[in-house]
Amino acid sequence: MTASSQVTGPRVGAALPPVAFATESVLAWQRVVSSSFVPLVVDDLSDGRFAGTIRGRVIGDVFFSRLRVTPHEVHRTPALIDVSERLFYKITLMLAGTGELVQDNRTALMLPGSISVYDTARPYSLRFADPVDTVVIMFPRDLIDPSPDHVRAITAISLGAEESLTRIVTPLLTEISSDFASLEGPAAARVVHTAVELISALLSTAALARATEGDRERLSLMLRIREHILDNLGDSELNPDSIARAVYISTRHLHVLFHRQGTTVSAWIREQRIEAIRRELSDPMHAHRSIAEIAACWGYPDASHFSRTFRQHVGMAPSGFRRAALEDARHGETRRSKLVPDQRATIG
């Protein structure tokens, strides 16, 4: 494995070149998937004929990958969770072969065309008795609408073709995993945003369908709240009081709902605004607009306050972020021409 090709998992603001690995060593495979996703234990079920390949692409906070692997098991243990710096959701789309996902005292039979979600914050195991071809997407837990409690209700459940949104999401995820090299510049950010929105809609629908009456009411309320916030991100006067009035609940109740999700109303608003601004600063279509204009359109009329907030959230000044993103977009084709997308590094 070459250092320049190493997959390291999601990194804020990153749009890394496509990468690929192949190995016949289960220990090497364990190292690769542990560094690409989260720390994992891998057991070989192939009678000593193990082989695995992974191709992946990190865009923003989202890691898209395609795995082809001989029979094996994967375990996420409490000890490994304790040493993990960040926690994510993972989505697996089965393209070929079958598997079993176990989490939260449930077992999902994963068949071709089905999608399953699991949470890296809690132990899980995956068992593949046959060779498999899968798409795996990993992303921070706060990128989707359902709260962690609502996602817990649908972990280790197979969402198949009977779910209408599965039939919509599957072709997009399959196409993305077939050509990572085509994801460059602003197009990549837009595709990722669309994919995550569709995944969020799929999981929200599944959670609503399987929730108890009380949970269904809470999830529906939370989805209405988030929709109102997203529709009004450009309003600099957007605040907990105005949101609570719009959805007919008390401000205290609003704060309790967000506290249950491990965040605050203000923090969630800020994250959505900064993410929207990041997308526009990265997009050549908005290159003619000033940073102050873009920030004001997303609820930051005070340029100095916005600059401090952006730097705290992203780790660099808005001007530096924009310069790097637009430079990356301009040279995307040149960089892609120098890559060998199907290049494989044999490990072990």
UniProtKB/TrEMBL annotation:
All residue ranges annotated as the HTH araC/xylS-type domain in the record: 223-324
Domain of life: Bacteria
InterPro entries (UniProt xref): AraC-bd_2, AraC_XylS_family_regulators, Homeodomain-like_sf, HTH_AraC, HTH_AraC-typ_CS, Tscrpt_reg_AraC-type_HTH
Keywords: DNA-binding, Transcription, Transcription regulation
Descriptive protein name: Helix-turn-helix domain-containing protein
High-level lineage: Bacteria, Bacillati, Actinomycetota, Actinomycetes, Pseudonocardiales
